[in-house]
Amino acid sequence: MDEMKKILLPAVLITATLLLSCERKDTFRLSGDLSYPWLRLSSFYGQADSVYQFYKSRRAEMTTQQLIDEDSAGNSYLLMLEKYDLLKSPYIFVQNEKGGLVTVFLTRNMYQQFKKFDYQTLIENNRKVSVKFSVSKLSEGVYFCEEIHQVNLVEGKTLPEEGRFRIENYL
Questions:
Q1: Domain-located, residue 19
Q2: Other residues' Cβ atoms within 10 Å of the Cβ of residue 103
Q3: Which of 102, 149, 162, 168 has CA 20 to 30 A from 29's CA?
Q4: Do both 63 and 137 map to the same domain?
């Protein structure tokens, strides 16, 4: 029996290691600057519970296909958040090195590092927040932070002027 344990234990450990490594998400480095875009809702984090409850009741009334038919882009996005259990997760926006704006979801503990930054104070002091992460891609322009490598307060503009909301563009 002891011989059997000596053979089975390594085999089980090797098999478990292989299975776990297959489940790991592919991660890569993402770096850029913290951004504060106007009028963007990426999850129900920080929203009134009634907004989330309305979504849940609406979701319960409709099939996935009905939701997609009603608002393809919006509901597909929410279904993706459901899939990864991120509907009520904190997030930040990062303007990456290529100039694109991406959404990065974080755990609540990771998010604590970003709560200390105030948009108005950053603007007044001509500062920005430079970040580097290991992330996994959830969909185009949407990532989950696996690890924070760097969060630095540096000189520079937080939000490019061309990204500001102007009411005259919508009249």
A1: no
A2: 20
A3: 162
A4: no
CA distance 25 to 91: 19
Q: How far is CA 48 from the centre of its chain?
A: 20
127-146 burial code (b ≥16 CB/10 A, e <16): bbbbbebebbebeeebbbbb
Q: Phi/psi at 31 (nearest 5 deg)?
A: -135, 155
**Based on the domain organization, do 170 and 112 belong to the same domain?**
yes
**Quick one: how far is CA 149 from the chain centroid?**
16
Query: Are 69 and 124 contained in the same domain?
Result: no
Provide the CATH number for the domain around residue 143: 2.40.50
Q: Model confidence over 78-134: pLDDT tens digits?
A: 888 889 999 889 999 999 888 888 999 999 999 999 999 988 899 899 999 999 999
Q: What is the largest CA-CA distance in the chain?
A: 81
The total of structural domains in the chain comes to 2
Do residues 44 and 51 make contact, with C-beta atoms less than 8 angstroms apart?
yes
Q: Which domain holds residue 84?
A: 44-88
Q: Read off the pLDDT of residues 24-67 as tens digits, 9 standing for 90 and up.
A: 468 899 999 998 876 566 667 777 777 777 777 777 777 767 76
